[in-house]
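Practice problem: Methyltransferase
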Amino acid sequence: MAANKSGALLCRPGEVIIDLRERGLRLLQDPRFFCFSGEAVRLADFAADALPEARRVIELGSGNGGLTFYLWAKLNEASCTGLEIMSANVSLAQRSIELNHNVPELLRQIRFVCGDWRQISQYFPAAGCDLVVSNPPFWRAEASRLSPCLERRAARIECFGGLKSLIQAAAYILAPGGRFCLLLPEERQNEAAAKLTATGLVITQIEHWQRRVLFAAAKVE
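Answer key — structure tokens:
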């Protein structure tokens, strides 16, 4: 499917195109799913500050790709890959790459993979990246008020692996000296800190923002 300048051939019924306001990038998203938000912007800024020299970046649970695109814009010449379990979200992200055909370096440096972080070794080699980011589902699987839309539900509820498996996946793909940056609600701060430490990652920075907590954790060299 080829894109024209307006992106009309890439935007399917019900989808919208938003301006990311970074390097002219645009993003396709479906309002029925979980959409790009200020959380992604804050996490991208935090991660870029934590390791500005990052060149190999992987996002775990990349959704429609907004955070991956935004982080790529902040890190010049970084190779960025998003891993996402929901195929509908991967389709959106891949079509957003086509939508930005006027940014040729992006076409070479961003890709998206449909897969499950619980089988991380199937997609990425051990110690193969220097920055991992994630804005994972906030709440455990037993949470109430589940959305009937699977994509929306999976964005906020741990339907496909919890915090422990996420941190283990990040530790597996991080090279020594690399950083893992994630954002969670403040209610899960102690749990996250304990799981990061148990996995052998060293917390280097914690910030609080709008009842959220951001972690940067290093893999010891």
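Discussion: The first strand starts at residue 16 and ends at 19. Students who identified this feature from the tokens alone can consider the problem solved.
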